Amino acid sequence: MDEATAFAPGHVTAFFAPYPDDDPARAGSRGAGLALSDGVEATVRRVDDADAATADSAADGGLAGLELDGVPAEMEPVRRVLAELRVVAEVEVSSEVPVGAGFGVSGAAALATALAANEAFGLRRSENDLVSVAHAAEAAAGTGLGDVVGQFRGGLPVRLDPGAPDHGRMDGVPARPRVEYVSFGELSTERVLGGDLDPVREAGEAALARLLDSPDERELVAAGRDFAEEAGLLVPEVAEAVEAVAAEGGLGSMAMLGRTVYALGTGLSDAGYDATACRVDPTGATLRPTE
Amino acid sequence: MDEATAFAPGHVTAFFAPYPDDDPARAGSRGAGLALSDGVEATVRRVDDADAATADSAADGGLAGLELDGVPAEMEPVRRVLAELRVVAEVEVSSEVPVGAGFGVSGAAALATALAANEAFGLRRSENDLVSVAHAAEAAAGTGLGDVVGQFRGGLPVRLDPGAPDHGRMDGVPARPRVEYVSFGELSTERVLGGDLDPVREAGEAALARLLDSPDERELVAAGRDFAEEAGLLVPEVAEAVEAVAAEGGLGSMAMLGRTVYALGTGLSDAGYDATACRVDPTGATLRPTE
């Protein structure tokens, strides 16, 4: 097989308690979120050794070229995944969710690339192994701390421990609601994750304790809404939208970390927003079957 | 909500090393299998307290009535799930795969019942909690030792440890092949699991070590085929079908524990069998969304 394609769901973090670590497989966060049926597809195409030498792609960490929605782009976690797997490939990424807006596109691209590369190159790695490679690539690149493991599990994933599968236990909220979202633009994950993490961690731990006490989808979003306020992460347009949803009896919050509001059911359209509707993705990241 | 429906995939165990335990949450098996897109649906319908008293269903462990494919039936793991969740309900189970033939129908029914009951009664249990309840119900009933956790994960699940989610780590083989199967009738799980388990455990451990060394779908089935021979579990019709598949260049084995043969791709139809075709289920057990 010369190429393979995999899908990873978009992942909106409801709340999180960050735990950085020098070991990227142990770095991560506790918290919870929503895996969405809107997500990211990555197609990995083998580049043979002769072409690779010409393209000088050994120095390029195994990435012979990357397009994001048809345009040449840089995605450091994807480059790190291919380097770690010791393969040289071209990668085409297409995203149904906006980039840089809190949907974990970089993590989804890294995870889908790992699954597709395993298939295209016949690497015979296990799922935990591939998830670990993608999680560590994302943590080392500084682009996220918990999306990858949530995107692999699917549903409404709860991260009981930080880190890759060998280190981090997971649970989930067994509900599959409809979700709406509106995005107002980008917000720098690196900037927020580079600041003082103590208040974020404290608010995140409180939100997780609350959710585990009563795990359902409304508690997940409500705990996320209080977390966003307590951690001081709310941005003005999102705060306004969250209030507008509540005024109509709905429940919404801010995607961590993005200038994005999401709501259960028809919360945003009821409040007059031109929202995108999707569902909770029940499956998690998976190889696209070939016939 | 008065009722809810959940799906759990059929699960063919390729090989297993059984580890019984007095604590049904710790009892289980190490091993690997295939979650199938053909599976089991359970609809749980609330019975209110007045009706429950009339039906004397408190003594009946919470099960006010069960139909399997439209016919009144007994399923002890389902009864145990409702008793453990302390709810009284009617349950309708429908199965796309044959019962008693190695597809884990009892485990699938228990797991789908747990997920649907959580939704219908608003129990606010987490996914791990519901999987544990279903796993323990199945282990206590003596009807299986590893289907439930595999059915929750989906894909090609690998059980690294025995037991429910709090005790047992899992991994998976990241492939999603087409699968064919033919069933020749029932085989008693209880009878086999009641015999001498040492040779089965030894063959199961060898098969698991082999798969973990090179995790792909062909190794999974080939390790299962050797396990079936070494553990002395092959039955004549199945052995004949496995050989017929191999003679055509295909790869198949016996479903543990059932009088059933399965094969990758078109292995059984190539060998002239009138086989049922399905895919590996990527999702695992999940609530059916309501709109």
From TrEMBL, chains A, B:
Domain of life of the native organism: Archaea
Coiled-coil region list: none
Catalyzed reactions per annotation: (R)-pantoate + ATP = (R)-4-phosphopantoate + ADP + H(+)
GO molecular function: ATP binding; kinase activity
Keywords: ATP-binding, Coenzyme A biosynthesis, Kinase, Nucleotide-binding, Transferase
Top-level EC class as recorded in UniProt: transferase
Pathway: Cofactor biosynthesis; coenzyme A biosynthesis
EC number: 2.7.1.169
Record-annotated GHMP kinase N-terminal domain positions: 89-155
UniProt GO BP: coenzyme A biosynthetic process
Pfam families: GHMP_kinases_N (PF00288)
Function: Phosphorylates (R)-pantoate to form (R)-4-phosphopantoate in the CoA biosynthesis pathway.
Family the entry assigns: Belongs to the GHMP kinase family. PoK subfamily.
PANTHER family reported for this sequence: PANTOATE KINASE, PANTOATE KINASE-RELATED
The protein's name: Pantoate kinase
Annotated source species: Halobaculum lipolyticum
